Amino acid sequence: MESKRNFYSVVREAPASSPIGAVAIADLRRSAVTESVVKDLPQGPTSVTQMKKVVPLGKNETTGAPIQSNIEQASAKNPELAVKRNLENALRLIDCASRWPPGVKDLVSFPEFFLTGYSEYTSGPLQWSREDYLRVAREIPGEETDRLGEKAKQYNLYIAGTVHTKEAEWPNHYFHTQFIIGPNGKVIHKHWKAHINPNATEWATTVHDVLDEFVKRYWWDAVWPVAVTDIGNLATLTGSEGHSPESWRAYAFKGAEIYDWMMSSGWTQGHSQFILQAMCSVNRCYGFLNQPARILNNVNHSESCYHNATLIADYSGRILQERREPSEGSLSEPLHIQDLLTRKQKMGLQIPSLRSTLYSHIYSEKYEKYPANQYSEYLPKDHTDAFRYAQSKARWS
User: Fold this and answer.
1) Helix (H, G, I), strand (E, B) or coil at 234
2) Which residue, 127, 283, 289, 374, is most buried by CB atoms nearer than 10 A?
3) Distance (Å, whole) CA 176 – CA 162
4) Which helix (H) or strand (E) holds 8?
5) pLDDT for 4-55, tens place per residue?
């Protein structure tokens, strides 16, 4: 059980006696809490005992290379062939990004569902069932992350991605999981999508859906985990998770320095770009927006109708590089992490300054439309059932 608890946070090793677990707080000395005992009362944490593990920056600049890849839509009945082709294509694109433009790359990342694609059917006989998603879902760590780990070791870089997963400890659940692989070839970061919009195409189990049991197993630190590394503090988001400004803010409070928002479609032209720029600016973080070039074998849309863009933004919200054409490729841009830390120190904004007492009433439980722990009681069989179940639990229409 201890190894499972520690798996969700790269450098935090909380003792078994901790009632909640480690709380990640990164400061200008590149340190993170590795052991803490937090007494969580309604007013918030009242006491913290901590021992810090220093994670120094390996260099002043981190070169980020978000990859814009084609994604072949997997078949729910026989997904392995498409998954294999998507994986081989991802490995090829890592080679390409590492070699061109010339220079060392420290972090590469992929769009949402880059290994499997996803089903857009929300009704009728072609929508994926729970059994279909469990057939498509991967295991982390597993064969795919092992192959990606070989590339991470080959090029001494970090690799970020997101995929549907399943876990033996959570039978019959499937998840939308973000992961980061370190230069040692091992998975160092794992984050379930924290929440979804029931009106969207997805209905995977989220942290919010099993919140009490999740916290019991992994502690509160795992709800919004930040990977504290020698290239910067990395935070991952996917899909609609990024449409809530609170998600970005939570990561900022955890010491995030680089956001990686992995998307599968552009919604409306520029919509995701505007969110990325605003969140990087107000939270003083660098950010990637990862989106696919084309979705192949998708019967709903032509390959290039997604209006996608892959972007890198700096901590003032400026676009440093972008790729808008619907073709495969990658960006490459140095991220001045040490400069960011120096500026935060001068501004007194190591973490965001927030008068939380002004907002606590608004964010109290009675304003939450969907109650937590819905999937602790019932697991829907398909999207139609999931939408019906969510609406039956909604506190207002």
Assistant:
1) strand
2) 289
3) 7
4) none
5) 333 344 333 333 333 323 333 333 334 333 333 233 323 333 222 233 456 8
Q: What one-character-per-residue DSSP string does 346-378 give?
A: HHT-SS----GGGTTTTTSGGG-SS-S-GGGT-
**Quick one: 53 exposed, middle or buried, by C-beta within 10 A (0-12, 13-18, 19+)?**
middle
Crossing angle for the helix pair 80-99 and 143-155, to the nearest 10 degrees: 10
What the chain holds in terms of domains, given with CATH numbers, is: 61-347 (3.60.110.10)
What are 176's strand-pairing partners?
A: 164
Q: Where are the alpha helices (DSSP H) in 100-198?
A: 130-136, 143-155
Would you state the structure tokens that stand for residue 199, as one six-digit string?
Answer: 């009106």
Per-position DSSP letters for 23-89, written without gaps between them? -----TT-EEEEEEEEEEETTEEEEEEEEEEE---SSSEEEEEEEE--EEPPPSSS-HHHHHHHHHH
pTM of the complete model: 0.88
- Torsion angle, alpha carbons of 168, 173, 120, 396, to 10: -160
Q: Do 208 and 240 contact (CB within 8 A), yes or no?
A: no
Measured between alpha carbons, how far is 328 from 228 in angstroms, rounded to an integer?
Answer: 30
